[in-house]
Amino acid sequence: MAQDFFSESGKSQITEAIADAENMTSGEIRVHIERKCPEDVLDRAAFLFEKLEMYKTELRNGVLFYISFEDHKLAILGDAGINAVVATDFWNETKNLLVNAFKKGEYSKGLSEGIRLAGVQLKEHFPVAKNDVDELSNDISFGEDTK
Ligand code: CA
Ligand code: CA
Known about the structure:
The chain is α/β, with parallel strands linked by helices.
């Protein structure tokens, strides 16, 4: 099952990384994991972004990390507020970090580092406000398995 992809400590490592990143930036980061990507990876990420209602941020600065582990697909999708102010290669560094870590089998560690890096990068454009609200849950969401 997708839920079993990370150990319990891996899961808490990731949610802690999200909380750390969100202490730096008003951007809201979520992680979605599933076994297989049923369509084009960017279409899938866009679909899930809507489904998880990740557009519900004041500054439209939600970021989805999407991973399907059996077919090794990965997407990082930022909302319109981010795309309006960053270059198109903004996520490349984070993506490369993830790809390199995943090649070594370091999934939760790589993801945690990638999330923190995203926080550092987002901070430039979206610094955290004093009265920051956790607009989107930090919990990892998982795809439903069909078997
Ligand atoms: Ca927040
Ligand atoms: Ca959050």
